[in-house]
Structure formats: structure tokens, C-alpha cells
Amino acid sequence: MEVSLYFICNVQSQLSNTDELSYFEKANVNGGEVLMIKGILFDKDGTLLQFGTIWIKVVEEIIDDLLKMIGKTGNRDLQKQLCLSIGLRNGEVDEKGHLASGTTLDIANAFQAVLPKQVPLLHQWVSENILKKTKQLIEYVKPVCNLSSLFSAIKQKGVIIGIATADDYETTVLCLHHLGIKNEIQFLGTADLYEKKPGTQVVEKFCEQFGLEKEEVAVVGDTVVDLKTAQNSKVRYGIGVLSGVGSKQELQSLADFVIPNVEHLINSNNEFIWE
After folding, report:
1. How far apart are CA 197 and CA 27, in angstroms?
2. What is the spatial distance between Cα 87 and Cα 102, in angstroms, rounded to a whole number?
3. Per-residue pLDDT tens for 125-184?
4. What are the C-alpha distances in Å from 12 to residues 78, 258, 261?
5. Which of 45, 64, 126, 212 is the most exposed place for a label (fewest CB within 10 A)?
């Protein structure tokens, strides 16, 4: 028999609205017993690090460089089309667009679809330039909270920490080193190593590497794609965070829990939210 527990939580809107929002969050508990979580897979952008402070700047510069490369410098119409193709409109990120949760291949394909001519090796160019721009703008890579403290608390509970991101490996490692948390991550699942989310391969490999059952795993992220990964993989919990691009309305429909940011995974009593 499945029992439903409801939690009331006041959170601050991730949009520029400071009004507190009160809503119910549901956690499903089999047989009234909370299963032990032994591993947590975190998304990266918007979940562990602030999304808008870095990636909007990166893609805007990449688009300008791309226009220059194809001889279309200053073409505002094409610049706008390229932005829209990846879900960037007037500096705002579409939570369902490629910038929010797509891979470098998704971004390259979206660009190519609106370019006036074929650009050879565009995916390679996009991947290399995202890495280059991230290095140049690394000071804009900022955490959503004190991640070192959070990860220390998680590890003290014997829980394995992993990352499942749409980014490439080198860019991901660069960001984690900058944040000082690379050595805290025990599993690194990137889109150039594993099937992209919401595919299940990254969860399966995480479980395989550490001998975990899927019901012993929680997936945490700021987009619908992250929560669909949780559903497709049949992990115990899919947890949405409001620190990135995903809206409360979208995340609530798929999540077992929705929290302001990852800091709220552990409460003031040093307990996980599902305990």
C-alpha cells in the first residue's frame, strides 16, 4: 500500500518576485517506511551553480563569434534567430529550450538549422568555444549555496554524490575545480560520456559503479528533463529545485519534492527532507 505524506513549505520565487509562495509537496513512501537513500545524482547548471551568471554571457559571446566566422558580423536578425533557436529570448532562458537542458550537440544542431549555409564541424567548434569562453568568464561561475558544507553533511550520512549534466566533461571539470568541489564528486556523468538526459544510462552507470539499487537513489535538478530522467530511471525520488530555470508549476507536476535550492535537502535537524 502506498502512503502519501504532505509537506508545507514557504519558498521564495526564483523569478524577481520576493513574495513567499506556500504550497504542498508530496513524497511517496512505500508501506509507510522511508527507504534509505544511498546515492544522490545532482544536475549541475541551475542546481549546483547559478545558471544566469555564466551561461547567458557565454552563449551570447559564442553567437557573436559565430556570426563573425561566417561573415555576418552585426546581423541582428540572424543573431536573434540563433538566440531563439536555443531558447534565449531577450536575455531570458526558456526552461524547455536547449540552453536550459540541451547538450553541445543540441545547441550546434539548433544553430545550424537557422544558419544560411552549412558550417563544417560546427559541433566541435561549439564545444571547444564553450570551454574557451567558460575559462575566460570563470569568475562568473558561482555556487547556489555553500556546496562544500552541503556535500560534507551528505557524505557524513554515508551518501554517495554524483553529477548528471548535459555539459561536456572538460567544461564540467573546469567549473567544479573553480567551485572547489571537484574532489567531493564521486561520479561524473556528462553528455559526451553517456546518453543525454532524460535517458537512463547515466543513472544505470551510477548504480552499477557503486552497487546501488535504483530505489536507493535520488535525482536532483532544476528542469523537467532532470525529473523525467528520475521517472524514466525509476529512482526513488525526483527532487526539483527553484534555483535554476525551471518554474514551480512545471517542476511540481513531476517532482516528489520541490525545494528552493539544494541547501534545503537537509533541514535544521540535520535530516534529509525524505526522513
Report:
1. 23
2. 10
3. 999 999 999 999 999 999 999 999 999 999 999 999 999 999 999 999 999 999 999 999
4. 37, 12, 10
5. 64
Segment 200-219, tens digit of pLDDT: 999 999 999 999 999 999 99
Q: What is the pTM of this model?
A: 0.87
On whether the CB atoms of residues 223 and 242 are closer than 8 A, the answer is: no
Give the domains, in start order, of the chain with CATH numbers.
Answer: 31-51+142-265 (3.40.50.1000), 55-136 (no CATH)
The DSSP line for 186-216 is SEEE-TTTSPPTTSSHHHHHHHHHHT--GGG
pLDDT confidence tier of residue 255, bands split at 50, 70 and 90:
very high
Task: Tally the residues of the chain.
Answer: 275
What would the grid cell of residue 71 be? 561573415
